[in-house]
């Protein structure tokens, strides 16, 4: 297995995890899987989370400091944020078009809606409470939350990644502004730490196929329980909705991103897809842009030829504020729930969804399930019953895997474009197929 490229190892791990999960359900090995296999998936996720904050902090500091002047940082930052916001708006609009054309919400009967509402009442209440806490905050609270009162406190919580990014940017800018001879030893220190962190990433990624196997085995067992047919029946009932979301996410990966890569990135999409594929597979299995960030950065630099100066700035920022897949999903889910409840949304309400989903994506934590909390805010803004979120909780974990894959692909696409426009795209050193 060592001779196989990483993405093939991850694919094999995914396949075996699914097979084991289904067999475990049939053979009544659920408890064994949850007790003795699933924990290794949790350990793998924890290892990725362990390295996420140090990676973002050190990569951004070294990346910003390497830009050497404030004007260059401003130019790259403007390009990056502009591209991220543009792709997010396009994703939301695409989701609204698809859900209005296919109308998946009309497929639910009142009996089935009531069944889901009662089954997921507790989870719905929890998500509503989380969203209510966010809603009660003032209009500038999101801006306040970006600035940490204690950087060490922010570094202990992966959901505070924006605060870590703020400090890293501030630190890097300050390094540029002080005399070169004084900044040199600090730069050398962080470059050395960066090398250590990247080596840790290599060690963690060697365990990725086994971690992915354990993750998916546990997921299938929890989803199916003692009756695999229950999972199949549930997916069939919600299949129409899932298909619409999947079509939208597929169009992002197979149409929108290729157009951007080819026209603005001046790169063949086949080469881009090969290069980012290992990160896509890890994103699919972990459902976390933050956890996948180490692999995304490695793929961008080694497989796509993106200069470290660009990748260390654009990708950590993208893992926090660029959620194209999540934004598309929120648009489809909001209108789907409205359709299920027989609510006709006006054009202004749907435009409000575009704005809210775009802004919500900026503050969404790059961890599994964060999109659900932000979706509640989108629903409230559009006047859609929050209880309707119970309808989509069942397949959300699977769709979360797909939309995270889109998020990571979008990050890499923007990094490719920025690198091309800055003349920082070089021949790749490590594509393996």
From TrEMBL:
Q: How does it sit in the membrane?
A: Multi-pass membrane protein
Which segments cross the bilayer? 7-27, 47-70, 82-102, 161-180, 192-218, 238-264, 328-347, 353-379
Which GO CC annotations does the UniProt entry carry?
A: plasma membrane
Q: Which GO terms describe its molecular function?
A: symporter activity
- Which GO biological process annotations does it have? dicarboxylic acid transport; L-alpha-amino acid transmembrane transport
Subcellular location(s) of the protein: Cell membrane
One Pfam family, short name:
SDF
Tell whether Transport is among the UniProt keywords.
yes
Q: Which InterPro entries does the UniProt entry name for this protein?
A: DAACS (IPR050746), Na-dicarboxylate_symporter (IPR001991), Na-dicarboxylate_symporter_CS (IPR018107), Na:dicarbo_symporter_sf (IPR036458)
**Keywords carried by this UniProt record:** Cell membrane, Glycoprotein, Membrane, Symport, Transmembrane, Transmembrane helix, Transport
Superkingdom of the source species: Bacteria
The protein's name:
Dicarboxylate/amino acid:cation symporter
Q: Which organism is it from?
A: Pontibacter arcticus
Q: What is the lineage of its organism?
A: Bacteria, Pseudomonadati, Bacteroidota, Cytophagia, Cytophagales
């Amino acid at each position: 297995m060592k001779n196989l490229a990483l993405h093939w190892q991850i694919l094999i791990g995914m396949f075996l995890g699914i097979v084991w999960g289904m067999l475990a359900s049939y053979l009544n090995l659920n408890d064994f899987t949850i007790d003795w296999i699933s924990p290794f998936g949790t350990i793998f996720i924890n290892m990725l989370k362990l390295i996420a904050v140090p990676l973002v902090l050190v990569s951004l500091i070294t990346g910003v400091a390497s830009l050497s002047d404030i004007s260059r940082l401003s130019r790259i930052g403007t390009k990056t944020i502009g591209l991220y916001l543009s792709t997010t708006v396009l994703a939301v609009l695409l989701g609204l078009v698809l859900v209005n054309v296919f109308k998946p919400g009309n497929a639910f009967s009142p009996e089935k809606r009531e069944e889901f509402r009662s089954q997921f009442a507790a989870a719905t209440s929890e998500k509503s409470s989380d969203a209510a806490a966010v809603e009660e905050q003032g209009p500038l609270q999101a801006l306040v939350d970006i600035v940490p009162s204690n950087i060490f406190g922010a570094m202990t919580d992966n959901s505070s990644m924006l605060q870590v990014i703020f400090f890293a940017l501030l630190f890097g800018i300050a390094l540029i502004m002080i005399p070169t001879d004084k900044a040199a030893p600090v730069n050398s220190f962080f470059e050395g730490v960066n090398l250590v962190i990247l080596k840790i990433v290599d060690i963690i990624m060697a365990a990725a196929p086994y971690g992915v196997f354990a993750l998916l085995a546990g997921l299938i067992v929890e989803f199916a329980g003692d009756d695999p047919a229950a999972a199949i029946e549930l997916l069939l009932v919600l299949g129409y909705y899932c298909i619409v979301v999947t079509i939208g996410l597929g169009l992002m990966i197979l149409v929108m991103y290729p157009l951007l890569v080819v026209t603005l990135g001046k790169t063949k999409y086949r080469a881009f897809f090969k290069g980012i594929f290992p990160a896509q597979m890890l994103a699919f299995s972990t459902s976390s842009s933050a956890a996948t960030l180490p692999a995304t950065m490695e793929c961008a630099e080694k497989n796509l030829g993106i200069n470290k100066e660009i990748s260390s700035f654009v990708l950590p920022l993208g893992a926090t504020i660029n959620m194209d897949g999540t934004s598309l999903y929120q648009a489809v889910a909001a209108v789907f729930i409205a359709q299920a409840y027989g609510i006709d949304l006006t054009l202004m309400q749907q435009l409000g969804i575009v704005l809210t989903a775009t802004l919500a994506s900026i503050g969404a934590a790059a961890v599994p399930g964060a999109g659900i909390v932000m979706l509640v805010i989108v629903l409230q803004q559009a006047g859609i019953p929050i209880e309707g979120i119970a309808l989509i909780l069942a397949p959300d974990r699977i769709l979360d895997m797909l939309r995270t894959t889109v998020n990571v692909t979008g990050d890499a696409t923007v990094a490719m474009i920025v690198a091309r426009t800055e003349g920082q795209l070089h021949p790749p050193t490590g594509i393996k197929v």
